[in-house]
Amino acid sequence: xxxxxxxxxxxxxxxxxxxxxxxxxxxxxxxxxxxxxxxxxxxxxxxxxxxxxxxxxxxxxxxxxxxxxxxxxxxxxxxxxxxxxxxxxxxxxxxxxxxxxxxxxxxxxxxxxxxxxxxxxxxxxxxxxxxxxxxxxxxxxxxxxxxxxxxxxxxxxxxxxxxxxxxxxxxxxxxxxxxxxxxxxxxxxxxxxxxxxxxxxxxxxxxxxxxxxxxxxxxxxxxxxxxxxxxxxxxxxxxxxxxxxxxxxxxxxxxxxxxxxxxxxxxxxxxxxxx
Length: 275
Hints:
- Helix content is 80%, strand content 0%.
- With 275 residues, it is an all-alpha fold.
- The protein has helices spanning 4-41, 53-64, 67-99, 102-117, 124-131, 135-159, 163-171, 176-187, 189-213, 222-231, 235-266.
């Protein structure tokens, strides 16, 4: 017979998990703010170079009351979504084509790896000459930096499919598009989502670099706001914009992490009790 205490034990563990997921990030933020305040009070840098957390947070609150910040966030996020969407289509198609073709993998695999490791900032001279000082130059660098990561995720996912499963599928008559639709793409989905997460990191860094290098006139963006703060030597405003960039990156990364966790749980790659 199971005792009452034993039956209640899982409930106690489940109750603690949401609390831990809440206080752990708050503890991290509090630690960073405390360290920042200590460095500020030490007088290592003058206040106009390194302002206090209170000064920066006040500046951030003031900027949040104006439409310019939200317009800049909208512009930047629209560029991120468009660039990442294009990279998603191109990278997925490229990965699917290369996955089951040894000749294409041998020919283009090193190229994809090289493109993935190439710094995004190195593409901007070419992009500016080719597209001019336009949003297209920024989108080009986002795509060229993100698509290889997504293609690599598709290829890596297909490589982790057990050969026995592939032989079984072929013995059941799955060929060509049907093989990709019913086996390869679903089986590689966990690795594919991991590739999407990595691709988003590339896209976000490329976008931030692009908005600082390619200043599109008459367009408010996060990069423009950061550039203006730098030109005015306004450190509170600059750090406030950097916090906005950090928060947006964390939020989008959290969405990818949640999707990755759901897919891994569904595919039986993690224990439901540990997720």
